[in-house]
Design brief:
Blueprint: H1 9-12, H2 16-29, H3 36-49, E1 53-57, H4 60-70, E2 78-82, H5 88-91, E3 99-103, H6 114-118, E4 125-131, H7 140-144, E5 150-153, E6 161-162, E7 173-177, E8 191-195, H8 198-208, H9 229-238, H10 242-258, E9 274-275, E10 281-284, H11 288-297, H12 317-320, H13 326-334, E11 335-338, H14 346-363
Parallel strand pairs: 2-3, 2-4, 4-5, 5-7
Antiparallel strand pairs: 1-8, 6-9, 7-8, 10-11
This protein binds pyridoxal-5'-phosphate.
Residues 59-61, 85-86, 88-89, 131, 153, 155-156, 177, 179, 189, 191 line the site of pyridoxal-5'-phosphate.
Length: 364
């Protein structure tokens, strides 16, 4: 039995007629930029997250840059960000003029902690980007208690729940990506920003539209970064199903636990109070690359997403030189994503687990 790394098409299949209707309606309506579906989705998504305001933007990377700009981040400022995350989390900082400052993670939750942030704070720290990595939740309240605004990079955490609310409502401002493989994925690029601060929301709307409030006077260097009307129409069909898919992801995680995978590798650890809708199911193993090869040979999807952490990427040389992040390096070396989707069955999880067991047995 082959088991794919993810399955985006099976959950969408029953929704095909609704999706086609939604797209047809956009064509009939003929309003392609910031039309009725964008404003409706903005409200529906903000409501889902538990935030007062939602603003659709072009993608999750723009969402981060615009969120930072809306917080007033600019030249001379520092923004703290983890290095063990998708490259865009840090890539979004230099375009504001600010400097990325990399912090370490908790090797179990794979998210930043208040201690790891505090260790690199300086008087120039203007904001912290925390990443709710793989669907887990970073401790936002503890970090904001340090006296610095938190941008939640929630690109991977749609559908996750937390004792203090959902990702998107935990910090000063939050960003999402609707890249097709995400927990809530569009049929192309898309992103959103949520916040409960009306002034910040207002600045975000202005910045995503060329830095103008009225398209007559341009007082700010902004962006042309809007959620597409067609993508918004699609996302409105999908959003009501997000919680069911999130439950499917949780169930898939339990299937791995029940199959005994935890006896063979380190399983991902939810942060206290978090019930992750696992976007990626990322295990750790001392010989992760050899395990990846064994899984590949058996037809099991796997991927080491961030083998080279961001502070060691060539483009970040000026910010990463001399930075020492032991937990980041360790997790970068040992992590491996294995199959995860809302429809991953107990049989598939058992198959993956048995392949890992055979690898472990052969290695003894
Ligand atoms: C953690 C994280 N941040 C930011 C992004 C950037 O989102 P996008 O690809 O929509 O620009 C992604 C995903 O692509 C991501 O996984």
């Amino acid at each position: 039995m082959t088991v794919p790394l993810f399955d985006t098409s099976t959950p969408l299949a029953p929704l095909r007629p609704q999706l086609l209707d939604a797209m047809t309606n956009v064509v009939d309506e003929g309003r392609y930029i910031l039309g009725p579906n964008v404003s409706a989705f903005e409200q529906e998504f903000a409501g889902y997250c538990g935030a007062a305001h939602g603003i659709g933007v072009g993608n999750g990377t723009d969402a981060l840059t615009i969120a930072l700009r809306a917080l007033g981040v600019g030249p001379g400022d520092e923004v703290i960000v983890p290095s063990f995350t998708f490259y865009a989390s840090a890539e979004a900082i230099p375009p504001t003029g600010a400097t990325p400052v990399f912090c370490d993670i908790d090797p179990d939750t794979m998210c930043v902690t208040a201690e790891s942030v505090k260790a690199v704070m300086t008087p120039r720290t203007k904001a912290v980007i925390v990443v709710h990595l793989f669907g887990n939740v970073a401790p936002v309240a503890e970090i904001e208690a340090l006296g610095v605004p938190v941008v939640e990079d929630a690109a991977q955490a749609a559908g996750t729940t937390y004792v203090g609310g959902r990702p998107g409502s935990l910090g000063t401002i939050a960003t999402f990506s609707f890249f097709p493989s995400k927990n809530l994925g569009a049929f192309g690029d898309g992103g959103a920003i949520t916040t409960s601060d009306a002034e910040i929301a207002d600045r975000v709307r202005m910045l995503r539209f060329h830095g103008s409030y009225d398209k007559v006077t341009y007082q700010h260097i902004g962006y042309n970064s809007r959620l597409d009307e067609l993508q918004a129409a699609i996302l409105r069909v999908l959003l009501p199903h997000l919680d069911d898919w999130a439950d499917g992801r949780r169930a898939a995680g339990r299937h791995y636990v029940d199959a005994g995978l935890g006896d063979l590798v380190s399983l991902p650890v939810p942060t206290d109070g978090a019930d992750p809708a696992w976007h990626l199911y990322v295990i750790k193993h001392e010989r992760a690359d050899e395990l990846a090869a064994a899984l590949k040979d058996a037809g099991v999807g796997q991927k080491a997403y961030y083998r080279v952490p961001i502070h060691r990427q060539p483009a970040m040389a000026q910010y990463g030189a001399g930075v020492e992040l032991p937990a980041t390096d360790e997790v970068a070396r040992t992590h491996l994503a294995i199959p995860m989707s809302p429809v991953l069955s107990a049989e598939q999880a058992a198959e993956v687990t048995e392949t890992v067991r055979a690898f472990a047995g052969a290695a003894v």
